[in-house]
């Protein structure tokens, strides 16, 4: 199975066959080791996947799991909490151990 097929299956599992008309999926990317500098709001799932796959060849790519309100598209780069339209999933980034973390207080082991 190709990366494109994997991406399509993953995005379809999250969003169904299409992004609702009142919503946008935000794709963000930046050079490795640098801040995220570019954002694109997509209303079409296939277009969003195409952008992400294209940018992933040379950049780190991220997307906001929860869809944004289409009305906020021209106002903000990635959107803000108040711009969320639908909550499709909840993501938790759990850190533990010490390797790879820059902290003086340490993390649970």
Present the secondary structure layout.
Elements: H1 3-15, E1 23-30, E2 38-42, H2 45-55, E3 60-63, E4 68-69
Antiparallel strand pairs: 1-2, 1-3, 1-4
Helix pairs in contact: 1-2
Report the CATH C-level class.
Answer: Alpha Beta
Give the end-to-end Cα distance, rounded to a whole number of Å: 37 Å
The shape is globular
Residue runs with pLDDT of under 50 for 5 or more positions: none
Mean pLDDT: 83
CATH architect. name: 2-Layer Sandwich
β-strand number: 4
Largest sheet: 4 strands, antiparallel
Number of helices: 2
Order of helices and strands: HEEHEE
Helicity level: 10-25%
Tally of individual domains: 1
Q: What is the percentage of strand-forming residues?
A: 15-25%
Task: Characterize the structure shown.
- It is a single chain.
- The protein is built from 2 helices and 4 strands.
- A hairpin with a 7-residue loop joins strand 1 and strand 2.
- Strands 1, 2, 3 and 4 form a 4-stranded antiparallel beta sheet that branches.
- The chain has 109 residues and is α+β, with helices and mostly antiparallel strands.
- The termini are far apart.
- Helix 1 crosses helix 2.
Can I get a quick summary?
By secondary structure, the protein is an alpha+beta fold. The protein has helices at 3-15, 45-55, and strands spanning 23-30, 38-42, 60-63, 68-69.
Please give a handful of descriptors for the protein shown.
single chain, 109 residues, alpha+beta, Dna Ligase, domain 1, four-stranded antiparallel β-sheet, 2 helices, 4 strands, 17% strand
């Amino acid at each position: 199975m190709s990366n494109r097929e994997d991406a399509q299956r993953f995005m379809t599992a999250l969003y169904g066959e299409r992004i609702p008309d009142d919503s946008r999926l935000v794709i963000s990317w930046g050079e490795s080791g640098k801040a995220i500098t570019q954002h694109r709001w997509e209303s079409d799932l296939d277009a969003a996947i195409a952008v992400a796959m294209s940018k992933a060849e040379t950049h780190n790519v991220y997307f906001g799991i929860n869809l944004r309100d289409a009305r906020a598209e021209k106002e903000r780069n990635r959107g803000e909490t108040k711009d969320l339209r639908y909550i499709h999933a909840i993501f938790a980034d759990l850190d533990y151990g010490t390797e790879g973390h820059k902290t003086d207080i340490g993390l649970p082991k």
